[in-house]
Amino acid sequence: MTERPAQRTPNRQLAALIAEAGFSNAGLARRVDQLGLEHGLDLRYDKTSVTRWLRGQQPRGTTPALIAEVFTRRLGRRLSAQDLGLDACAPVYAGLEFAATPEEAVDIVGGLWRKDSGSHAELRKIAFTPAGLVVPSRDWLIGRPDEKVARAEVPVRIPAQGRPVTPRGPVPLDPSRRRAPAAERGPGQKVTGGDLAALRSVGELFRSLDDRYGGGHARQALVRYLEHELEPMLRGTYGEQTGRRLFAAAADLTRLAGWTSYDIAAHGLAQRYFVQALRLAQAAGDRAYGSYVLVTMSRQAVYLGHGREAVQLARVAQQGVGTSAPPVVQTLLHAAEARAHGVLGEVRACTASLVRAERALEAARPGDEVPHWARFFDEAQLADEFGHCHRDLQQFRAAAQYAERSLLLRAPVYARSRLFCRVVLATARLGLGELDQACQLAAEAAGQAAEMRSARAAEYVRDFERRLEPYKDAAPVRGYRDKVAALG
């Protein structure tokens, strides 16, 4: 890796921190290389590299952020590249921080929204980082509740020119009325009950689009809404109760932005949205929703093959709410753990979690108060979870039974979930030797996937096709491939 020409000034800040951390030059280089591997980087630093940094050379690319992260882990406090006397660069863990305060959380997530809504395509190429799951989930579990989220109105002063400004800079206010024009929202404006109702409606709209057509159809519109409408609300004025509800809505919409990012395979970006949704849920004082965000993170980890991390996230979610959550939420948490054990091939643990999930749903009663975000989890969804688990455990007869039940019960509006379940059923039929049925089901799913903007839908179909390889010369498989080719 090439370095910039050496500066003449020795880096005393870096030298002091190396001494504080007790690193040798070789030890620091080794840790930087190891952290680079976590991010898919093949670095080859050694003690000579560190000697050059101490003499004033500046490492290039993301290396300053990696060095800062090494010291952060060692010393237990957040350090930036500048703290080490190194040039600033985009932090490797940018967006994965679990903010110390609600204000800091708004700054972090607002930065993500602004970058994502622009032309920053590189943001959608950030890699998923398993190591980035540990600290946020731990901080959520053991962190103290936020005592205050309310924001008082910032006094507006009128300069000689008559244009209202606040300490944050110019605000688009009407000087004669001292209020924002009805068509615009500026920082400092009061958040109303109507604003909160609008946020809920926006969430329902984008969730429906995601379920029917995939995350890629309206994701960018959602992110722009978050930037242009939600962030000014979070920087507005509100009392304690309104503030908690506002942060709850922000958590929900940020999780949804992560979910749609996950669906288009922008996994690193999705991970960052999930972490920030978790922090916003803490500001809302909503432990149950925080557990739902952790379950979402667990599902992404399962999809990416990180089963052990997925189990840990599901268990942290369970610990975080204890037995206080409604039965449907308990069902959701146990089902997530089951999926993680299933992808690891842990039959006994998977079965035990499925049993707990089933019992929890049986305990639900009509009239129970269920959070709006958990109402999707019903018998159809539980049957879907069973089907996936039995598929992963290669218990194909049970997988087929549960997948058929889920498809029978599942409403058509959940088009993508039905597609996933149809592929699970096709895979089960293939495992049972029923090649004709398997190919017919998969062809239907492939046709539906072609109508969606969902990388996950396409990957489900590809996974089935990989399983077809041993039968590639069979007539049903040739027919399947002809149908898929006709889709273009």
From TrEMBL:
Residues 160-193 are annotated as: Disordered. It comes from the Bacteria. InterPro entries: TPR-like_helical_dom_sf. This is Regulator. It comes from Streptomyces plicatus. The lineage of its organism: Bacteria, Bacillati, Actinomycetota, Actinomycetes, Kitasatosporales.
